[in-house]
Design goal:
Blueprint lengths: L2 E2 L1 E3 L2 E3 L3 E5 L7 E5 L3 H13 L5 H14 L4 H11 L3 H17 L1 H4 L13 E3 L4 E4 L7 E4 L7 H12 L3 E4 L7 H10 L7 E4 L8 H11 L2 E5 L2 H8 L8 E4 L27 E5 L10 E3 L6
Parallel strand pairs: 1-5, 8-9, 8-11, 9-10
Antiparallel strand pairs: 2-3, 4-5, 6-7, 7-14, 11-13, 12-13
Helix pairs in contact: 1-8, 2-4, 2-6, 2-7, 3-4, 4-6
Length: 296
């Protein structure tokens, strides 16, 4: 039976668990690690204290991770069963993952200078382009969807490129998150830099776990409709919080800019993604974005 472990500080953790089932293959089930309070606290501590590496080192590690990433026929079969997609499509998505991980490394070669603190964490270059600030300290919290195995690679490529440690709360249908995380660590990222947790969102203590991470993080990245995102994040729109819709990214970009989205590398339009900058911060890196649609 397939088991999906937590990955905290580079170590697999599998204590308490809950069942995942397939809507498409009757009787198919698998075990998913259910993060406890201690697991959440350890993940937060790791992310806060992770070594960020230099831009050049991050680029090198991403490239190595892309070469290291591997999967088996069993991994593809598991994804097919929980996603209900044809084998050819799912396998094609798996094959795209190394290219997504490598895709941003070219943008690292001429990384960005430090900027002064700016209000609302953004600065408009022109009508179509925003500079998005990343925190010098803290970490990102990412809630990934379960309907596309490329989502984890998209997140990893961007946050690793930008040097922002993160905690992934993966969907129980996310079949590839552990594989990508292991490749990142083997590629040279600090094991504390990327942490993976699952928890049963139907359990009574799920909100407590979710908001423990949310309240500690500096940046939130989640997927879904505006209604879904707003419900998940429980954030009020104010001058301190900037909401960005990053589904529309220019197809032509300068290597001087990193992108906070991998739509460029085949991210489907249906996979809507939003970044929420939750704190004022001194700039570490930024990304050029087209038509971001600020919702604040």
């Amino acid at each position: 039976m397939v088991k999906c472990p937590l990955l905290i500080g580079g170590k697999e953790v599998f204590r308490d668990s809950f069942k995942g089932t397939s809507l498409f293959y009757e009787g198919y089930s698998y075990d998913i690690a259910n993060a406890g309070t201690l697991d959440i606290a350890q993940a937060i501590g790791n992310a806060k204290n992770a070594l960020r590496l230099s831009p050049e080192e991050r680029a090198d590690c991403l490239y190595k991770a892309a070469d290291i990433f591997s999967y088996s026929n069993d991994d593809v079969e598991h994804a097919v069963k929980i996603l209900g997609m044809p084998v050819s499509i799912v396998k094609g998505h798996f094959e795209q993952i190394p290219f997504i991980l490598k895709g941003l490394t070219a943008a690292i070669s001429s990384r960005f200078p430090m900027f002064d603190r700016l209000q609302n964490n953004t600065e408009r270059f022109d009508d179509n382009t925003l500079k998005v600030l990343m925190p010098e300290e803290g970490f990102g919290y990412v809630v990934t969807p379960g309907n596309d195995v490329r989502a984890m690679a998209m997140v990893a490529a961007n946050l690793c490129c930008l040097g922002l440690p993160f905690i992934i709360k993966a969907s129980k249908e996310d079949a590839v998150a552990p594989l990508v995380m292991k490749a990142l660590i083997e590629g040279g990222f600090d094991p504390r830099f990327c942490n993976l947790v699952y928890f049963d969102i139907t359990a009574p203590d799920a909100p407590k776990k979710h908001f423990k991470i949310l309240d500690a993080c500096s940046v939130v990245w989640t997927f879904g409709s505006d209604e879904t995102v707003d419900r998940v994040l429980r954030y009020e729109r104010s001058s301190k919080n900037t909401y960005l819709d990053i589904t529309d990214i220019t197809e032509n970009y300068s290597p001087d800019f990193g992108l906070l989205s991998a739509k460029l590398f085949g991210n489907p339009a249906s996979l809507k993604s939003r970044i929420v900058v939750t704190r004022q911060c001194k700039v570490l890196d930024y990304a050029a974005m087209r038509n971001p649609g600020i919702l604040s």
